[in-house]
Amino acid sequence: MAEDTFPDMASAIEVKEYLAYWFQLGKGVIMPKSQRVLLPNPVFEGERFSAIFEEYWKDILSSSEDCYLDGTEQTIKELLTAHWEIVNCGRCSLPIPANHGHPFVNLCPCADMPMWPNLDLPLPRLPISDRESLSRLQCRLREKEKREDEQTQNMQS
Question: Is residue 61 a contact partner of residue 19, using CB atoms and an 8 Å limit?
Fold first, then answer.
């Protein structure tokens, strides 16, 4: 394997989801040259990302600016290279960028949020498909019913 190749590089989808989590906590993407802050509201519309989120995501990907998430130093373009992956923060469990070359430089965007994590508040999430959630719930109920039937049969034997 080449030295510059890493098997766990961050994909565009992972970076997009990483931003979605932090947008929900009020962290925007800083566009320094144009002096804009991109912070979509709402982040979701039903089962998918909102139109404004998708518009901002396209702006971020096509920007020639070195845009970055507020509270971080890595640009979004850097995160899309093979030197980075998205992992979970040990403090707050939200996604953070991790640099393969410098594993101890992975500061979480929550570092400047003294009241976070706050377990009294709902945690940020990704869009939820009602259909998929219902399907998973049905599967779990069928599995539970099957286990109960097996236990009943074992008790009768």
Answer: no
State phi, psi for 67 to the nearest 5 degrees.
-75, 155
For residue 91 the two structure tokens come to 């403090």
The one-letter code for the residue type at 139 is C
8 A C-beta contact, residue 60 and residue 67: yes
Q: What is the DSSP letter of 100?
A: S
Residue 36 host element (H or E): strand 36-38
Is the overall model pTM greater than 0.85, yes or no? no
Which residues neighbour 26 within 8 Å (Cβ) at sequence distance 6 or greater?
39
* DSSP state, residue 28: P
pLDDT tens string 18-74 = 999 999 999 999 999 999 999 999 999 988 999 999 999 999 999 878 999 999 989
